[in-house]
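Narrative summary of target 7.
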Amino acid sequence: TMTEHRVVITGLGAVTPLSLDVESTWAAICAGCSGIGPITLFDVSQYDCKIAGEVREFDPALAFKNPRDARRSDRFTQLAVAAAKSALADSGLALPASNPDRIGVIATVDDVEHLRAQGASDIRLDLRREATEARVRILAATAHLLGVPDLRSDR
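Modeled conformation, tokenized:
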């Protein structure tokens, strides 16, 4: 039998192409705005697709305690840590908590082996493998930011 556990979402955080916070992102969604536009963060002359949902006006240094950590992190980790920091602020929780083992961070991607069993292409599997590696970096950086134990099983 499955044991039911209660989960409480205590705070929300968002760093999106529409805005850098939950309230503004939600207002833009309700207004029917799109975050899609011309790609400006890198040269797209060699690509067919020249539009994307870019997060603009984002300063990663604001999300990290140590500016060096921001410089050492890749962009998707910077974005995830900024959203986690925003969610923590929204929660009103004071960290480090007296019981940090009761605080969790979840990031998900498709399981590569599950996709292979379904006949996914090697390119798709490589992208998923990269996403899994990104998830590991995001979880480690977020645990460090929150000051909670890094409970990854692959350490």
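Helices lie at 22-30, 67-72, 75-91, 112-117, 122-146.
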